Amino acid sequence: MALYSDKVMDHFRNPRNVGVIEDANGIGEVGNVMCGDIMKMYLKIEDDIVKDVKFETFGCGSAIASSSMATELIKGKPVSEVMKLTNKAVAEALDGLPDYKMHCSVLAEEAIQSALEDYKKRTGKNIEEAIEV
Amino acid sequence: MIYADNAATTKMSDKAIDTMMKVMKEDWGNPSSLYSHGQKAKEILEEARKKVASAIGAEPREIYFTSGGSEADNQAIMSAAAIGRKNGKMHIISSAFEHHAVLHTLEKLEKEGFEITLLDVHENGLVVPSELEAAIKDNTCLVTIMAANNEIGTIQPVREIGEICRKHGVLFHTDAVQAIGHIPINVVLDNIDMLSSSAHKFHGPKGVGFLYVKKTVRLNPLIEGGAQERGKRAGTENVPGIAAAADALLEAIDKMPEYSYSVSKKRDRLIAGLKEIPHSAINGDEKKRLPGNVNFCFEGIEGESLLLLLDDKGIQASSGSACTSGSLDPSHVLLAIGRVHDVAHGSLRLSIDEDVSDDDVEYMIDSVKEVVDYLRGFSPVWRDLTEGKREYIL
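The joint structure predicted for all components is written out below.
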């Protein structure tokens, strides 16, 4: 049995949305070099919609695949929806991750949350209110 | 496929497979049975014991067949500890980067009241004999230091270590799992009292190993039961595996001069090629290492991704990254030689043998360069390094 699902390997081999957004208005970086995974998410939000998203990841196959899948799940989506993205949704979209790799999907969720926090700080927008709408 | 993970396991040689098949098909009797079919198996078993003994300069009665290196390590250390305990000597010296079969056994003994000293292996991955001598105390009962490291391949000064142990009347065990069949070892010349080995590291079958124990040292069984292996290892002997292991070992010893020359030449070319990658470093002494072992750290990338992409290119290798171990810590070996977590995660071990051609070596160098470059291309750590936000370690 292979270590990873075909979906994980596909996103690992051909990661989507890799790179940097120069004029991003929300940037989040999570993880640390000690445990071996660092994810950085760049968001370009316009009219409460994630118009563009890019990522950079230092980490294992599942960390790269989780980052890639997470960007796919949030691209073009309203902020209110992006806020609700869970690691479980990322892992499920990848057809599952080995138990000891689940923290990679958690990292993807946290990277996006962190980028949204940054967006909130930069723009002064209350994202929580946006959810109510 | 280019197989570059011979430190993990080796392909069985044709000779070993032939021997194993023959014994399984024709001489499958129980060596403990007294009728001729059983006695034929017994003959094969004792012939194998002679071959193994001759390969390391031991006497046949000093060889005990086991299930592999881990069992041999466990039995050797537990037996030496029992002797120590009986004599009121409860101090054991080892090194910080031993195999877990040794380290975990020592941890168990520590809980039972033994004092354990782990010698520093320094940045070059080598034990310093004078530091060993200084660590020996009146109550030291055992020194256990591996002959060659399984990850970084560094070869310890076994003979000198053995000499020091003899001088102080301390038992010396060496985990020679990576060394036997790859570098010359002679238990008499090298002053070794106990030695562990595993057949699948020298083109023999898995599940077979042996423990050499000097005839004056009392060995205790780990497995109780029948009187096999002179009462020291119960259970019907794995005769086909043992016969195949013995033949594989003789073959490896026979080929050693040529193997050593040609494989270390390829190793040196690999090292020179990989050194061209900026912000990389070889792990362990460059020369005092096994003929086939290459181990590097590359800054800014993570080892598992590197392995998966090399696998896509047909290269089978290994890494000491935490992500490949299922734990949060990278390899204890890399940490022991002073590599910090940041770079230990980006390690790569290529352990080659004579099947790897010169073209394969060039292909591996090009592939590693390409993959490291690609992964650095979207690594936030590498970005921070190149933008001066983080300091280079390598």
